[in-house]
Amino acid sequence: MPDTGAELPSLRDALRSSGFTLDGVADVLGDRASRALNREQPVPAELVTRGSDDPVAVLVRLFGLGCPVETAQVDRALPGWGADRLAGLGVVERVGDAVRTLFDLRPYGDGEHEWWVLSDLAEGVTRRPLPVDHVLGIGGASMTLASWTARRPVDRALDLGTGCGVQSLHLSAHASSVVATDVSERALATTRFNAALNGVDWDVRAGSMLDPVADDTFDLVVSNPPFVITPRTDAMPTYEYRDGGQVGHAVVEGLVRTVGGHLRPGGVAQLLGNWEVPSGGDWRDVVRSWIGGTGLDAWVVQRDVQDPAEYAELWAGDGGHRSGTEGFERMYAGWLADFDSRGVGEVGFGVITLQRPRDAREPWVDLVDATTGPVASPMGPTVLAGLEARTWLADHGDRGVLGTAWRCAPDVTEERHGRPGADDPSVILVRQGGGLGRSVRADTVLAAYLSVADGSLTAGQALDAIASLVEASPDAVRAQALPQIRELVADGLLVR
Ligand SMILES: C[S@@+](CC[C@H](N)C(=O)[O-])C[C@H]1O[C@@H](n2cnc3c(N)ncnc32)[C@H](O)[C@@H]1O
Predict the structure, then answer these.
(1) Helix (H, G, I), strand (E, B) or coil at 411
(2) Which of 358, 440, 455, 483 could be bridged to 407 by S-S, CB 3.0 to 4.6 A?
(3) Site to substitute for ligand 1 among 120, 159, 183, most atoms within 8 A of C-beta
(4) pTM assigned to the model
C-alpha cells in the first residue's frame, strides 16, 4: 500500500493545479467517453486521450485507464511532483521509461467539495478477476448510499465498512467527528491514505461490524455493508468488499437488529441491503421481522427485485468472471442451489433508514415499494423531510392531522383521465415531481380535499365541508380520507 505521509496535501495541490478535477476530466473526455467510463468501458476514453500531452489527459491515462505513461509526460503533467515522487510514494511503478499506476486515483465531489479518491484498479483495467482483498472504488451502491444519506450537522458519525472511505468524505462535510471501520486491513490503509490526501482527520478502526465501536454511540451511522448473499461453498471467491461471510441475508439482518444500541436519541442509521423473500412471501414480512423489538423507527424503501437467476448472473459476473467460463457456470449453479435450499423466490434490494426515537413512544414503521421509476437525486433532503414528517405524525396523531392547514407541495400535479366525451374523469392521479416520485389514485373526496389544500383551512374543516357537499357523514369522510392524507404527509405531497 502507498505511504500515508506528510506529503499528501501537496499531492492534492498538484492534482488540483494540473486541472485533474471533475470538471477538468469531463472537459477532456466529453460526454460519450465519460458515460462509457462510468459503465467501466475504457475504450472511448483511451481513444480520446491517446497521443495527447494535455496534463488532464495524461493523468486520466495514468490513473483512470491504467496505461503506461512516459516518465517525462508525468513530470510535465504534475509539476513539483512527477513520476519519481509518485513511485516513491508507492502509487505507481516504473516500467522502463514509463510508469504505470498501481491504483485508481480520481477526482470526486458532492457539488460543494472536491476530493480525490484512491482505490484498487477495477477489473476493466487489470483485465483479470479481482483478488479477494480488492478495495472497491466509488461504485453505484456507494453513490446510492451517499445520495440517500440524511445530511444535517451532527456531532459523531460512523461509516461502517468504509472501503476507500468515500462515505467518510461525505460525512466529514457535516459531522464534527467521523469513525471509519473495516475488517480489511487493505481497506483501512486506503482510507487512511484518502483521509490524508484530502486533509481530513478520521478515527479509523479495524474490526468486524459493530465490534470496533462496542462502547460508542452516534448521531448518524451509514453503511454500505458487505450485503451480497453468497453461497457458503468452496466454488465461491470470498470477496471482502461484498461478502460478510454469513449465510443468506444474515449480515444485514444482524446489523438492523443491533445498530440501535449505537444510536443516540434522535440518531439515524442508514444502510443498503438485500433481503431474501420466500416463494409466495412478501418482502415486508421479512424486513418487519428484523425491525420488531428494536424500538427503532424504520423506513425501508425497496428499490429493486431480482429472481434468483438474475441475482446469480449479476454476482457470478462481478469481479471479472465472464459468462460462458466454467468458473462462472459453477458459481451460477451454486447460487441457485443456495437459494433453493432456503426456498427463496426473489431477492429484494433497498435502502434501510432507522431512527432512535427521542422519547418514549411507539416506533413508526413504513415499508415502501419503489421499484419503478427514478427518485430525486440527491435523495437525502427527501429522507430528512420524510423522517421529520413521519415523526411528526407519530407525535401528533389523527387530531394533529385534522387540526393542521396542509397545502399541496409545489411539485404535486394532478392528471385526470376519462373516456372521450365523458363529463367526469374516471381516474384522477396525483403525482409527486420530486422525492420518491409517488403517484396516488385519488377518490372523489381526496381529489376535492387536495383542490382546496392551500394552507387556509385545516384538514378537519375542509373534510367537513366536503362531507356536506357530497351529503355524507363527516365521520365517514374523515375515516376514509385520514389514512390517505397521512400517507401524503409522510411522503411530502402535503406540507405544513
Ligand atoms: C460494499 S463495500 C463498501 C465500501 C464503501 N463504504 C462504499 O460505500 O463504497 C463493503 C465494505 O465492508 C467491508 N467489510 C467486509 N466484511 C466486513 C465486516 N465483517 N465488518 C466490517 N466491514 C466489513 C469490506 O472490506 C468493504 O470495504
Answers:
(1) coil
(2) 455
(3) 183
(4) 0.95
